[in-house]
Design brief:
- Chain A: It comes from Azospirillum oryzae.
- The complex is a heterodimer of chains A (183) and B (457).
- With 183 residues, chain A is of the alpha+beta class.
- Chain A folds into 2 domains: 13-57 and 133-178, Alpha-Beta Plaits (2-Layer Sandwich); 60-126, no CATH class.
- In chain A, strands 2-3-1-4 form a 4-stranded antiparallel β-sheet.
- The radius of gyration of chain A is 25 Å and the shape is rod-shaped.
- Chain A contains 5 helices and 4 strands; from the N terminus they run βαβαααβαβ.
- Chain B contains 16 helices and no strands.
- The chains are: A alpha+beta (183), B mainly alpha (457).
Chain lengths: 183, 457
């Protein structure tokens, strides 16, 4: 079995579509109780509680952004310090060369720039964007996930036939079978 | 709901009854994907492109002949270009304040207007960014502002407010474009999924970068968007403070004032809210968005305009009071010349348009009367341009050296550059109206869901 890459679907699974976030959450709870672990939810907006139910926490992005801010601030200050103190010192009326208050705005701006650019790149990397094609796009009804339906993707468990179990667990949802192509 | 349309209640609704998540999605995406381009769009776009053509001609002539085609000379070396720059960047603040600041305060009314306001910001910033570059006499050397390794081993003057400003506008351009684009991603995916024509699928498919709306995507999206909002709110204050410092850092009478950073932030916010109103009022009808951009939005924006006008009026009072309080003779001369000299009509126009006219908005019926409100907003936008003009020229034309006193007379090319930049803004904005969802669909879906569950209880 190939490795699970981001949200990329390299395994077969079942896609269940729901009309309301509440029905979707209900089904998700049942699935979790039955021990399904490889699940993913597709929704037209961020639904609270999904992360709790899936047991996922955002970890990397905030740390990366903090690091980017520190890098931008330190680098930005050093750039000015290097230019004004080390590389080309200009004595103007005996004023201190390391005039840090005058460097503070550019330091802030460059920290902001680093956060913006690195934050966006980190976001793209973590989300595996740009990724113009993913096998999940071929699933019938998937385009509804960006409009008004809430989908749960359930990975096929190796060596088990969950068809009956899923039919019982997802009574209100319209279960759709999809055969995934390895990405 | 509905039996007695109590004006109070009507004012509290951020969405009209009957609007559903699906209807918003269908309507807003159909505006882009399905609807035949309306006649008013073609007329507006045609006029805008005409003005843009004027801008191209004005810039072309400028590049051939140099800044001598404008009315500037010593000591008034900063004329329209810098005034325009401050004006445009000030109006840009409206979008950032609405989408970043009011995101942080979790204001419900923000969702429906944020996209429109942010789009406005992006194109205002584009106009603003051009102005300082073209006002450089030798604009082709603008890259000297970058700290790059050069054979002369020189550095830009990092201690100068003018260089802070260069960095600030650079970061603000990057920030507003990224903030706008990140917020667009889920909506571009909706367009991709709803598109029927091939070119639309390809275009929005590329722009959406393959957004799936998975829980992973939403989780990261919410963090990033929150962070960007938390960053853009101080960033927009920083850029206007720095623009204020451009002036305060100079020794020119009338400029050398410690109150300038907040003064410029208030002025920027005032013109920003005004221009958002000028766009919202006609567009909510023209695009049939009255269901999601309600009277509540109009009312909130009008109140914000009134508030910032009061803040700015306080600064106007201080501007006159401080020179007398300090007792510096030449500064008093400059103030007196502003109040009663050559530029007095401009000065009083700024006081009336920015300080007096917005006071009409204390009266609720006037605040809710859209034509009146539109005119008030127009007065403010014009007034804010005049304010920048008075600040830039007013101080410079009464220099410390009496022999170099000078009256700035704008030429045709000054006006052409100003009008042309309006054309650039409008062309960009009309294109955006045609090609991107002008209301944030996913935010409204979330808002409507929240409203529904609240109402069900």
């Amino acid at each position: 079995m190939s490795a699970h890459r981001g949200t990329g679907h390299t395994v077969r699974g079942t896609l269940a579509a729901f009309d309301s976030p509440d029905a979707m959450l209900e089904a998700l709870r049942h699935l979790r109780q039955e021990g399904f672990t490889r699940l993913e939810v597709y929704s037209p907006y961020a639904v609270e509680e999904v992360d709790d139910l899936l047991g996922r926490k955002p970890q990397a992005l905030p740390l990366i952004v903090v690091a980017a801010g520190v890098l931008g601030a330190v680098g930005g200050f050093f750039l000015q310090y290097w230019g004004m103190v080390l590389s080309y010192p200009l004595n103007i009326g005996g004023r201190p060369l390391n005039s840090w208050p005058a460097f503070s705005t550019t330091t802030f701006e460059l920290a902001a720039l680093a956060i913006l650019l690195i934050g966006f790149l980190a976001f793209c990397t973590i989300c595996r964007l740009p990724r113009l094609y993913d096998p999940i796009f071929d699933a019938p009804g998937f385009e509804q996930a960006s409009q008004d339906r809430f989908l749960i993707w359930i990975a096929e468990r190796e060596g088990r036939d969950d068809t009956e179990l899923l039919r019982r667990l997802l009574p209100h949802g319209e279960g759709v079978h999809i055969d995934e192509v390895p990405a | 709901m509905g039996a007695s349309p109590e004006p109070r209640q009507e004012l509290n609704r951020v969405v009209e009854p009957g609007v559903t998540a699906l209807s918003v999605t269908v309507h807003v995406s159909d505006l882009v994907l399905e609807r035949r381009t309306p006649m008013w769009w073609w007329i507006g776009f045609g006029l805008s492109v005409g003005l843009l053509g004027l801008f191209v001609v004005a810039l072309g002539w400028l590049f051939i002949r140099g800044v001598g085609i404008w009315g500037i000379d010593w000591p008034v070396a900063w004329g329209f270009a810098i005034g325009n720059y401050v004006w445009w960047v000030g109006m840009a603040s409206g979008g950032t304040l609405i989408s970043a600041l009011f995101f942080l305060t979790r204001s419900e009314w923000r969702s429906a207007t944020s996209r429109l306001a942010e789009t406005m910001t992006v194109f205002c910033v584009a106009c603003a960014g051009i102005m300082p570059v073209i006002h450089l006499g030798r604009w082709w050397y603008f890259y000297w502002l970058f700290p790059y390794p050069n054979t002369m081993a020189l550095w830009p003057q990092f201690r100068s407010p003018l260089h802070w400003d260069f960095v600030a506008i650079l970061v603000y351009v990057a920030g507003s474009v990224l903030f706008w684009y990140v917020g667009l991603l889920p909506d571009l995916a909706t367009l991709r999924d709803r598109a029927r024509r091939r070119w639309q699928r390809v275009l929005y498919g590329l722009l959406a970068l393959g957004w799936q709306g998975s829980s992973l995507h939403w989780r990261q999206f919410k963090i990033l968007y929150g962070l960007f909002a938390a960053l853009m709110a101080p960033l927009v204050c920083s850029i206007h403070s720095i623009v204020g410092l451009d002036f305060a850092g100079g020794l020119t009478p009338g400029w050398h004032e410690t109150q300038f950073p907040p003064y410029f932030v208030f002025g920027a916010a005032l013109s920003g809210f005004a221009v958002v109103l000028m766009l919202v009022i006609p567009l909510r009808r023209a695009l049939d968005l009255t269901g999601v951009i309600t009277l509540r939005h109009v009312d909130v924006l009008a109140r914000l305009m009134l508030t910032t006008s009061l803040l700015l009026s306080y600064c106007y009072l201080m501007e006159v009071f401080m020179p007398f309080y300090r007792g510096e003779e030449h500064e008093i001369t400059v103030v007196m010349s502003e109040l009663g000299g050559y530029y007095a009509p401009w000065y009083w126009a700024k006081i009336i348009l920015n300080g007096v006219v917005p006071q009409l908005l204390w009266i609720r019926p006037l605040r809710l009367n859209r034509p009146v409100l539109f005119l008030v907003a127009l007065c403010v936008v014009v007034g804010m341009w005049i304010e920048r003009y008075v600040i830039v020229v007013g101080g410079l034309h009464r220099n410390y050296t009496e022999s170099s006193w000078f009256v700035f007379m704008p030429t045709f090319w000054d006006w052409a550059t100003l009008a042309g930049s309006v054309g650039l803004f409008l062309t960009g904005f009309f294109m955006a109206l045609r090609f991107i969802p002008i209301v944030s669909m996913f935010e409204l879906r979330e808002l409507l869901h929240k409203k529904k569950t609240e109402g069900g209880r």
